[in-house]
Amino acid sequence: MDLLPQFDQFKVHCDPHTAGLRREKWIIRFERIMEAINVVSQTAISADQKTATDKRRLALLLHYAGTEVEDVFDTLPVWTTVFGTWKNEDQVKLHIDQSIQSVTQKHRRIGFHLRKGVDKELTNLENEDIIEPVTDGPTEWISPCHAVPKPKQPGKLRVYVDMRAPNKAIL
Fold first, then answer.
1. Rounded to whole angstroms, how far apart are CA atoms 94 and 139?
2. What dihedral do alpha carbons 161, 164, 165, 167 form, nearest 10°?
3. Topology of 90-171 in CATH?
4. CA 51 to CA 49: how far, in whole Å?
5. 82 burial via Cβ count (<10 Å: 0-12, 13-18, 19+)
6. pLDDT by residue (tens digit) across 90-114?
7. Mind telling me which InterPro entries this protein's record contains (predicted)?
C-alpha cells in the first residue's frame, strides 16, 4: 500500500473569523493532493468506478480534515453533495409583523442568454426540495428573481431572490 503524502489537518478552532477563507484555501490544497495521487473523479469512467473514487476521496478528505471534522461528519445521518437536505416534514413557520403591508414587486428581466440556465437551476432546486412551486393561487408577497454567472465556475449560475422587502416584515 502506498503511503499517503504529508498534509496538514484543517485547524477548525484556530481563528473563527477567518475559518471560511482558510477552509477554501485548505480545500484547494486538498484538491491538488488528490490530483497528485491520482484520485480525481473523471466523467469518462464507469458509474461503479466513479462511486469507488468518490468514496476514496471522501475517506481521504475526512482523514486529512482531522478527527473533529470526522466526528461531525459521522453524526450526520445522510450526506449528499451538500451534506444532505433538510428532510423535516414540517414547514418552516415565519413570524411576520402583520402591521407591515405585503409587497408585490415587479418581475425583473433575466437575460436571454441566462434563461435556460435559470430554468435548469430552478428545476434542480425543486428536485432537491429546496424550493417548491406555488400551487394555491396568487400570493401576497412577490420578490424578483436574479441570476448572475458564477465567477469561478464558468457555465454555472447563481440564482437568488431579492428578499429585502419581505425581510422587513419578518420578526
1. 15
2. 100
3. HIV Type 1 Reverse Transcriptase; Chain A, domain 1 (3.10.10)
4. 5
5. exposed
6. 667 788 888 999 888 998 899 999 9
7. DNA/RNA_pol_sf, Retrovirus_Pol_polyprotein
C-alpha cell at 152: 469561478
Q: What is the pTM of this model?
A: 0.47
Cell reading at 127? 428536485
d(CA 157, CA 167): 24
Question: Does residue 130 contact residue 85 with C-beta atoms inside 8 Å?
Answer: yes
CB atoms within 10 A of CB 100: 13
Amino acid at 154: P
Q: Is 109 exposed, middle or buried (0-12, 13-18, 19+ CB in 10 A)?
A: exposed
pLDDT tens-place string over residues 131-156:
888 888 888 888 899 999 989 888 88
Going 130 to 135 to 140 to 146, the CA torsion angle's sign is positive
Q: Which of 68, 80, 76 is nearest to 10 (CA)?
A: 68
Domain ranges for the chain, please list them.
16-75, 90-171
Q: How many other C-beta atoms can be found within 10 angstroms of the C-beta atom of residue 143?
A: 18
Joined grid coordinates for residue 144:
424578483
Q: State the Cα–Cα distance between residues 22 and 12, nearest whole angstrom.
A: 9
